[in-house]
Specification:
heterodimer; A: mainly alpha; Rna Polymerase Sigma Factor, Chain: A; Arc Repressor Mutant, subunit A; globular; B: Immunoglobulin-like; 2 domains; five-stranded antiparallel sheet; 6 helices; elongated
Chain lengths: ~180, ~230
């Protein structure tokens, strides 16, 4: 996503904040593919992923005026909304999701290593370097939580470690990531 | 005031999505009342977002978009009439799972189809809840409407309006209690396929002004019954 796309998205968001349906439609056209990919990973079922997508765009429509360009790019802001919406639904639907999600893990994680987007995104390259520094198991836990919405309980079952240990590992990993990322700037 | 390490960890896990229900409530309270915490959350969103940015795009069903456009503004203006086939797709999507309603829809959709055509509309709320079904029968020259949702609140009435088809203002077709049948002449030569039906909430007896005075609660396009 280059600077022109960013500017176009900001225009769309500003229009959306003013209640302009056309601007909102354009925002949807430009961003729904990405947000759907995000909700799809967390909710493997298409119907649930589409429900999450729809609720996300309703929140975007209702909250566009609160978007703060200083704090986040439009995509980062919208991705956060979509992830929280999808995780919310995942927690409500419960553990039925887990079995279905399991088979996709390996794909998801290698996906990050060889994505085309990497060359264009120094932030991603840096994040990947920092993730690699975590060690394999903690990295997998962080990625399963971020990409697929795994809860501590689900991670606990997957890795056969107590929930409290999972919490400790996640917090230590996130702390290390912060240090690595912020230190590299 | 800087955040404690514990608070920053809470912000981090809030973004990761791994907090327990109890911790989530604490985080939500912080988020609403503590600007430092809100900034920490935003910083964490920025740190991790490149992962989501790198996700390969997927195309959602067109019904998601159609439903959204209906939800963000009830289709009460002529320029919001969407193409019939798309509206039909939307209606089909919205009707999925509404088992309780299926029976009443079936009655409408399986009525005999005389030559000259019949049009059907499901009037829905902005939350895609069906409130009324309508048929326009061009052979019997009738517009029939039946309520499938709840009755109007006390001292209020539902009023049916025809919109769109190039007309500047809604035209009343009458007050609907459980059902209403009026002659098609009330549509005054409108193109039925381009007509939108809407239900507004009015004082008992109907709108005193000849135009909707209360909220438009249900809308639907007339579709040719196949």
């Amino acid at each position: 996503m280059d600077v022109h796309d960013q500017a176009a998205l900001m225009q769309c968001l500003m229009g959306t904040a003013r209640g302009e349906r056309e601007a909102f439609a354009e925002l949807y056209r430009r961003t729904s593919g990405k947000l759907f990919a995000v909700t799809r990973r967390i909710l493997q079922r298409v119907d649930l992923a589409e429900e999450a997508l729809q609720e996300s765009y309703m929140r975007i429509w209702n909250n566009a005026a609160r978007y703060d360009a200083v704090m986040a790019t439009p995509m980062t802001w919208m991705i956060a909304i979509a992830r929280h919406q999808a995780i919310d639904i995942r927690r409500r639907v419960g553990e039925r999701m887990t079995a279905q999600a399991a088979s996709l893990d390996d794909v998801e994680i290698t996906d990050i290593a060889d994505t085309e987007a990497m060359e264009q995104a120094p932030e991603l390259a840096r994040l990947k370097t920092c993730l690699e520094g975590l060690g394999e198991q903690p990295r997998t836990m962080v990625l399963l939580a971020y990409h697929q919405g795994f809860s501590r309980e689900e991670l606990s079952a997957r890795f056969d470690r107590p929930v409290a240990t999972i919490k400790t590992i996640l917090r230590r990993s996130l702390g290390a990531l912060k240090e690595c990322l912020d230190g590299a700037q | 005031m800087a955040l404690s390490e514990e608070e920053d960890a809470l912000a981090a896990e809030y973004v990761l999505g791994t907090l327990s229900a109890e911790e989530l409530r604490i985080a939500a309270a912080h988020l609403a009342g503590n600007p430092d915490f809100a900034r920490a959350v935003e910083a964490w969103e920025r740190r991790l977002a490149p992962l989501a940015h790198a996700t390969r795009e997927q195309v959602p069903s067109p019904a998601v978009f159609e439903t959204l456009m209906t939800r963000i503004a009830p289709a009460s203006a002529p320029d919001t009439v969407v193409s019939l086939t798309r509206k039909l797709a939307l209606w089909r999507a919205a009707a999925v799972g509404l088992a309780a309603l299926a029976a009443s829809l079936l009655v409408v959709l399986t009525l005999p189809r005389p030559e000259g055509g019949q049009f059907v509309a499901v009037l829905q709320s902005d939350k895609a809840q069906p409130g009324f079904v309508a048929t326009v029968d061009l052979v019997r020259h009738t517009v029939s409407v039946r309520r499938v949702g709840e009755a109007a609140p006390a001292a209020h009435a539902y009023e049916l309006w025809a919109l769109g088809a190039g007309r500047p203002a809604p035209e009343s077709l009458g007050v609907v209690n459980a059902s209403l049948v009026v002659p098609t002449s009330r549509l005054k030569g409108r193109d039925v396929g381009a007509t939108l039906l809407a239900i507004s909430l009015e004082p008992e007896g109907g709108s005193p002004t000849g135009q909707p005075t209360g909220p438009i609660l249900f809308t639907g396009s007339l579709l040719p019954a196949e």
